Amino acid sequence: MLHFYARLLVAVTFVLVVAGGLVTSTGSGLAVPDWPLSYGSWMPPMVGGVFYEHLHRIVGAVVGLMTLVLALWLLFSEKRAWLRWLGIGALAAVVGQGILGGMTVLFLLPAPISILHACLAQTFFALVVCLAFFTSREWVCPSPLSSPRVAGGGNRRGMKLLAMTAALIYAQLILGAGVRHTENTFVMISHIAGAFFVLIHVVLVLLFVFRRGADTATMRYPALFLGVVFIAQIALGLGAFMYTAMLEERIQPTAGKIFFLTGHQTLGALLLAAAVVLTLRTYRKEGLA
């Protein structure tokens, strides 16, 4: 039951990531000028940019309450002390995320706070993915990672590769947040260059899983998901680049721009989640975690 609830929190948090992306893509960050209320009420008229901004706040409140329940659940029922602390850390992260969200409004979208808000959102999503995995039967009762074709620590090298891939994806998310909130040319070039490094690592991960790594579907499916999402991410990134750097800017963002920008950010969260799951799964099956 705890694992099911943690997975439900992952799903709702993903909706929150999408809602946050829509706020930025539609330019609705200041559609509601006050915080924590919206135009002095809990439910303002849901029109224009107010719809996106207030919807984001509603979903954020739901995620916050669900995280509080999860943290208390772990605190009173979980025997593993480190997991109880991780639940408390998730609660602290979501509270901090809410405060940062309020600061972006009250201080009129300063770039540093907006970037930190975006990065913490991705961090929190990865954290709840970890909590869902740590509460699963797979983590509690792991099966060995059979890999007869790998000798001499091949799986250990693969684990380092997976961890580095997750770190690179997270670095890309930071750069992506910088592009979204500053439109700085150097940051954009760095973000594009970083995509090539992630590409190399995704290919290496696929080779590790299918040619040198584990033979189980629990490794192959997440690896395939990582590869497919990365291809889609590149396509959406090209579309986002066209709309932000090449096409004429309009007062109101077009549906195409909203789709590409939000989709690109959202798939970034899925990429990070896939890399984190692959890393944790390999570490656990290898008996190192």
Which key terms come to mind for this protein?
mainly alpha; single chain
Report on this model:
With 289 residues, this protein is an all-alpha fold. It folds into two domains: 1-141, no CATH class; 153-289. It is built from nine helices and no strands. It has helices spanning 2-25, 49-77, 81-106, 111-134, 137-140, 154-182, 185-212, 217-246, 255-285. The longest helix has 31 residues, at 255-285.
Summarize this entry quickly.
The chain is mainly alpha-helical. It has helices at 2-25, 49-77, 81-106, 111-134, 137-140, 154-182, 185-212, 217-246, 255-285. It has 2 domains: 1-141, no CATH class; 153-289.
N-C termini distance: 23 Å
Count of helices?
A: 9
The low-confidence runs, each spanning 5 or more residues with pLDDT under 50, are 146-152
Q: Work out the helicity level.
A: over 70%
What percentage of amino acids are in beta strands?
Answer: under 5%
In total, the number of strands is 0
Structural topology:
Elements: H1 2-25, H2 49-77, H3 81-106, H4 111-134, H5 137-140, H6 154-182, H7 185-212, H8 217-246, H9 255-285
